[in-house]
Amino acid sequence: MPDTLPVAQYLFKRLRQLGVDSIFGVPGDYNLTLLDHVVPSGLKWVGNCNELNAGYAADGYSRIKGLGAVVTTFGVGELSAVNAIAGAYAERAPVVHIVGTPPRASQESRAKIHHTFNDGDYRRFDAMQEHVTVGQARLHHQRTATSAIDEILVQCLVHGRPVRIAIPVDMVGVTVSAAGLAGGIQIPLAVQQPHEDAVLGSVVERMYCSKKPMILVDGETRVLDVVEEVHQLIRCTGWPTFTSGFGKGLVDETLPNVYGVCSHLQKPFLELCDLVLVLGPHFSNTNTYNYLLRPQDEKSILFGAEGPDSIQVLNDVHQDLPVKHFLQQLVQRLDASKVPAHQHDLVHPAVEIKALPDISPMDPVTQTAGFWKRLSPFFRPGDIILAETGTPGYGANEFILPPHSRLFKPVTWLSIGYMLPAALGASHAQRDLVARNKCHSLSNPRTILFIGDGSFQMTVQELSTIIHQRLNVIVFLINNDGYTIERCIHGRNQAYNDVARWQYLKAPEFFNADRDGEHRAHTWQIRTWADFDLVLKDPYLIDGKGLRMVEVVMERFDAPDVLLGLLQAQIQREKVHI
Amino acid sequence: MPDTLPVAQYLFKRLRQLGVDSIFGVPGDYNLTLLDHVVPSGLKWVGNCNELNAGYAADGYSRIKGLGAVVTTFGVGELSAVNAIAGAYAERAPVVHIVGTPPRASQESRAKIHHTFNDGDYRRFDAMQEHVTVGQARLHHQRTATSAIDEILVQCLVHGRPVRIAIPVDMVGVTVSAAGLAGGIQIPLAVQQPHEDAVLGSVVERMYCSKKPMILVDGETRVLDVVEEVHQLIRCTGWPTFTSGFGKGLVDETLPNVYGVCSHLQKPFLELCDLVLVLGPHFSNTNTYNYLLRPQDEKSILFGAEGPDSIQVLNDVHQDLPVKHFLQQLVQRLDASKVPAHQHDLVHPAVEIKALPDISPMDPVTQTAGFWKRLSPFFRPGDIILAETGTPGYGANEFILPPHSRLFKPVTWLSIGYMLPAALGASHAQRDLVARNKCHSLSNPRTILFIGDGSFQMTVQELSTIIHQRLNVIVFLINNDGYTIERCIHGRNQAYNDVARWQYLKAPEFFNADRDGEHRAHTWQIRTWADFDLVLKDPYLIDGKGLRMVEVVMERFDAPDVLLGLLQAQIQREKVHI
């Protein structure tokens, strides 16, 4: 390690230490010299087609690897990415947004230059990005640059939310001390608080005296970094366990007491429970079936109720108790013999799937006849599965996931177009994990995307990056002729819910995928159950490399039950109005 | 006209009165009921593939028709569009950004719902959008809704900058009085100011006593709405007239005293002038060849120096003098016999083009051998020509434009990816003008886009909208294998300046263009000057309908002179470092 190095390399090497192996972004004239330092710092550069997609990709990467990064240019680039950064903020994905900014002299003299509003005001974009980031650093000073970088990265990791680092062109090469790199970043450890013991005691007591307890694993469990501790809790209690949509994929669904997503169908069971342990709660309307699944405070213990250091026991919120540390104490303290069992008659989803009725091979594939449920056998350990907002997002609740798999589902931000670039990012993370030998000994795990036609059109160009990076990605394109989710909500026959009809399976050719060799792109079309069976057994699909794309043609108003309920309500409203 | 109507229709009908015939956007669950009112209000709905593209399209529309509008949904939609709105702010395009927001009750109760940060804070997006809009209206109150709409539209028109109108779902159908619609919106007229006469006098005096005067038409002339007055000034003085890059296309270049874009080559001439009348100045670095063309204050008169109501004479800025009114007075007051003539030896660009050297038909087409100059005969009256940031943006300076044509060039915001959706918007505006019989008796004028491969990839999906709206658009895709403009600036051989190679001419097939009939898409490829001659004479290209696409294959480092200068400087720097 040299004694000094350029600021840019300090930043990039720090990211590498923290597990970032690939970085996303788009070049622009205020970040070109910055990009010169990416590869020399040991990172891989992944150029995206546009900045929104780059932001989404970094988000996807971070949800798999624990940290992601994206580089854009001042103004035009960073604003194009802002919606992705906002989504990462809303759903707690730790993304470092690095923005190449104009030289300090231009900023200080208020020069009227391009990528500004020609008014000398250089702080507007800082101000806008503050709303979507948990911390901001402007690297304008040589002596404070490295400490500013370290501090902001800690913020990013502790809160699991995006930060923005603005680096002026003329700071990129400024020499700084490399000393800080030797030690790695210290994430502040939990400090034992005087009230911790009492809170622990009350949680244990509450657990011991419950009669009908359950566990609900929600999605902020990921960023609390307590997936392992939660599994210990699930195993040690044996209590019936559900996930929210956001939490799905964080828990091993092959465990006998894990029952999949807690949907409106479980409402009666939930009502009967007298204690609900909620891990990483995220109680938005879309993640709780319109609050239907939010347990009453009086019978809940929330781990991470108001951020990563808070525990809510019944109505009391206890702050300054880092959840990971708290859970470790809790699992240690629990006496298995005192943990009550909960007698119930829940049926494990795996049993339900075996009981699916037969279907006629020549019938069209429909969601109502079990398209989503019947996909489960296709998944295998290590798969990353992404289901875009729309019918796939609801459908994915019905998947039964194998161990070591992960799922991305719409949660709260619900920005359609997110999932395709997120699949690019997640797949890169998957590949980087394999390279670091941290992927459960799997050598070539798959990333599988389910996406509707409307969403696909939003960010389609990133398929090109998936192709040219030779990633192992399977795309199921649900072609149901427009925004079916919106048709269910309102305007079922309105033209504004239509999208142009594309020849979707021509995409690999347009984006110039290999036409031969092992990364040759393969495409299929599914219309009937016979097609479904045939395609899902095709070894090129199952074990191929590079992009594989399956167009599933479905009827406009075919959707999961929840959406069909909205559609029926809409039809009822129309009748009233007539 | 009914006595009352829903708020949404008041808004849309008002837009229609102001010349908006087509409105762009993307549906989302907080704007669906709003969209129900688009067609009943007499507007055409143009659904885009994503919100950034929709914003760009509305910007393009507004620059042709004087006002544009885009509809997005709360949070995800509006943030995706924010970079387009920022560009409209920077370059003064009056765009009305209408955002469908959650019901008032959700907002007031701070409900944790989707498209928020799950924290009950509903004002963040308002705060972010304030930075990129000249006015904001939140339509939360029935009694003030119509006056708020009217006021905000006046702001938009007077300043030529975007405004944001947020309309909660439950306000869409609220009944309001239609009375205001009867009168139309009154843009405040100029009020005679006591100092106007003195300022007019000093301007006239300065003009009479100049020896070497010139006129520089800059781009804010468009939004000052003084194109007609400027032509009177050009004709009545006979003075040598140039445009900036931003101003190009606003002035009839067939006039004998109009000499095209004032580039660095005109610096010596500019130096010799003792008076420069600048109309609609916009002195950013990129619009002035790095301030080279910004005339000294001591010899300038700036019309619109600091907004639409300011006149700068030498060093003094006079406020509250609306430029349009001032120019009308000025032209009236000028005594042609007292206006001095300026003897000079400028050569009209039309003469230069005729003197272009012969080229060998089998030579590859290059920018250095006059690709841009040689295109001029292809253009015809009424064409809208768009040249994207990159080599086309510089190349377009060399076009000689026919009367009634318009040009979009990179100015200050320089957000690559803008021009393709802007072409969609401009072409729609062109079609709407024809329908209103306001397009100089032209029946089917063309929109012609020049765009590099890197920019094309950014927003490619909007080609689908161009195709399916059957717009008369010609795309020249400059395929020079990556970000050539960035290669010229820095990192000429760096991988981050590469883009994936696509089969660009497969785009119409992928996007499902007609394969027969009058709107069948046509494609061509140009590699040599022989191809160039053949393709540009093809009647399908010249007079076809629908999308025509020409791929022009060029060498990586082929660029206009200005960029080649940067490239040479880069090579020199590298030598010094070795």
Automatic annotation (TrEMBL), chains A, B:
Residues 7-117 form the Thiamine pyrophosphate enzyme N-terminal TPP-binding domain. Its cofactor is thiamine diphosphate. SUPFAM superfamilies: DHS-like NAD/FAD-binding domain (SSF52467), Thiamin diphosphate-binding fold (THDP-binding) (SSF52518). Residues 404-487 form the Thiamine pyrophosphate enzyme TPP-binding domain. It comes from the Eukaryota. Keywords: Decarboxylase, Lyase, Magnesium, Metal-binding, Thiamine pyrophosphate. It comes from Aspergillus lucknowensis. CDD domains: TPP_PDC_IPDC, TPP_PYR_PDC_IPDC_like. PANTHER family: PYRUVATE DECARBOXYLASE (PTHR43452). Belongs to the TPP enzyme family. This is Pyruvate decarboxylase. Pfam families: TPP_enzyme_C, TPP_enzyme_M, TPP_enzyme_N. InterPro entries: DHS-like_NAD/FAD-binding_dom (IPR029035), PDC/IPDC-like (IPR012110), THDP-binding (IPR029061), Thiamin_PyroP_enz_cen_dom (IPR012000), Thiamin_PyroP_enz_TPP-bd_dom (IPR012001), TPP_enzyme_TPP-bd (IPR011766), TPP_PDC_IPDC (IPR047214), TPP_PYR_PDC_IPDC-like (IPR047213). Residues 203-332 form the Thiamine pyrophosphate enzyme central domain.
